Amino acid sequence: MATAVMTRLDPQSRAAARGWSDLSIRNLFILPTIAFLIVFNIFPLIYSLGYSFTDYRASTNAPANFIGLANYRDLLNDDFIWNNFIVTAKYVLVSVSGQVIVGFGIALLLNRAIPFKGLITTLLLLPMMMSMAVVGLFWKLLYDPSWGIINYVFRLGDFAWLSNRDAALYAVAITDIWMWSPFVMLLSLAGLSAVPKHLYEAAAIDRAGTWYTFTRITLPLVAPILLIAIIFRTMEAFKTFDLAYIMSSQDTTELISIKLYKMAFQEWQTGKSSALAYIVLIMVLAITNIYVKYLNRVKER
Amino acid sequence: MAHVKLSRITKTFGAHTALRDLDLEIRDGEFFVLLGPTGAGKTTTLRLIAGLDKPTSGRVEIGGVDVGEWGAAERDVALVLQQYSLYPRYTVRQNLEFPLKSNVRRLPQSEINDRVARAAKTLRIEHLLDRKVDRLSGGEMQRVSIGRAIVRSPRIFLMDEPLSNLDAKLREALRSELKDLQMKLGATFLFVTHDQIEAMSMGDQVGVLNGGKLVQVGTPYEIYHHPRDIFVAGFVGSPAMNLVDAEIDDRRIRIPSARLDLPLDARGDGRLGHVRGPVTLGMRAEDIHVDPSGPIEARIYGVENHGVEKIVTLKTGELIFKATTSAATPTEIDAPLRLAWDQGRMHAFDRATGTSVSERAARLPELA
């Protein structure tokens, strides 16, 4: 196709005068990106798949021995790894559902004619634009038991959020909710404003109450876009590393990505950690797939 | 079923006045059509009655009760819109059940099933009941939307250009179906349209709205044959009434643009004998006919063949006008044709105010 277009290049056109067709210019722009992706993403991905079947340690000069599926077998039989997964699942559940409730709630409040709506929306979006590490450090200060503002405002005395084994994970999740609810809000707002006004009028004429209208009209129409927000947030939450790593070092906040980091760069078990990375990848893909299947069903309905 | 009365309604949107001092009365069981061009205030009137908007001033009464403070739900009206407003992702049945299932008026399931079945039968959509509304054609969607109105048996049916999005054939079919339905239910209908054919064919009463004012209310016959002003005369009827500048004096009628100057005959005298001075003269195309001894000598400018008859555009002097001829009349473009017109069916309008001077006050329908 590309050559066909080039051979038919109009001799009067600027492309001909230049000696370059538009298509070749397009390719010229795309190629560096593709090369970059192959060198820094695709190649390591495949290379690490090879490592995951070996006992390779990047810290020693010893050659990598092929050990088959031993890494995978060890990992899946390791109770500590399973505990990391449970912690991660808890974290994903709490933070994503929190974001949906808060984000969608704010979107509902904003979806009407109010003064300074644009300004309010922009201000609410700010947390999302900050760096994870900065947010983590900020909230560490906010949670501080002796002079943090949170304990001061809620009169919690010297409750140590981040060093409390039970509370730490929730403290991190709350930070994540604060940071990413605006994202859910933004998508929900787009979905809500796309619901035609005449449907609400028809419902009002049909004597539908507020709740009835919300569950029968608003929710079904916003569901697909809300689900997209949930997919994105689930994937991100599953991979969370920086926020939890910066804020707390409890074993109850050791998410799977933190475990992975420790295994790879503190214990230097390169082969085994590659295998763990692949297990995580497969899990994320599986979860996303379930969501996408469900999303397609919701859209078809 | 109910009587609707609007008194001295004014509605403004910012600086724009949509309705000015509107008085309107719709009798119980009447098919009332509100006719007017885009932006005349038809939809605004309907939304005020539905309770979706509140008038800036004036009184809305339904069944003799002032409903000014009532919301849309309490007024017990049904609304059918041009864009159908079906609830997406639900089946036809779920759409029809929707108004019956809200907690304001929870009905027992057997009653709901019964009503849905009856409505579906009336509108002949029984075979569609379990289909998703997204998979319906325009005509089917509009039927469902009407069905959703009738399951409730509301006091008034409000319809906002419900047929405008349909193709010509379907529009024609649904027009007579709607009229039948209204007679069968004996319900009060307020039907808003910009299509004068819909107004003429369906309405018991037609109200012509222009620029936020109700210009004339009457039966389709009255609106067509006795237009109260030049707007109604020009808006109602297809082809539109021929309107020309003329002068009437001394029992003679002069049309400068057609270089015509002839005496009023006995019928013309009966109609316009009392008029003097410059007027805008109105003649319907069907009142001008081919007559070898007629006073007008014109050339054929264009022909629209409508099967039963032809609508011929003619030119004489600088005047271009339309006449209806039988389908058998030969109509070559540019061929000369002699015509006459029925002077007893002329209309004349005051050039400054546009009000009819040919209609005697006694023959005009009273404004509600």
Outline the structure in words:
The complex is a heterodimer of chains A (301) and B (368). Chain A is mainly alpha-helical and 301 residues long. Chain A has helices spanning 2-7, 14-18, 22-51, 70-76, 79-110, 117-125, 132-143, 149-153, 168-193, 197-205, 210-238, 242-247, 256-265, 270-300. Chain A has one domain (78-300): MetI-like fold, CATH 1.10.3720.10. Chain A has 14 helices and no strands. Residues 1-6 of chain A have low confidence and may be disordered. In chain B, helix 3 (92-101) packs parallel to helix 5 (138-150). Classes of the chains: A mainly alpha (301), B alpha+beta (368). The A-B interface holds A 196, 198-199, 201-209, 212, 216-217, 220-221, 301 and B 50, 52, 71-73, 77-79, 81, 83, 85, 87-89, 98-99, 101-105, 132, 148, 152.
Number of strands of chain B: 20
- By CATH reckoning, the class of the largest domain in chain B would read Alpha Beta
User: Which structural class fits the helix and strand makeup of chain A?
Assistant: mainly alpha
CATH superfamily of the largest domain in chain B: P-loop containing nucleotide triphosphate hydrolases
Count of β-strands of chain A: 0
* Order of neighbouring strands in the sheet with most strands of chain B: 6-7-8-3-9-10
CATH topology type of the largest domain in chain B: Rossmann fold
Q: Give the CATH architecture of chain A.
A: Orthogonal Bundle
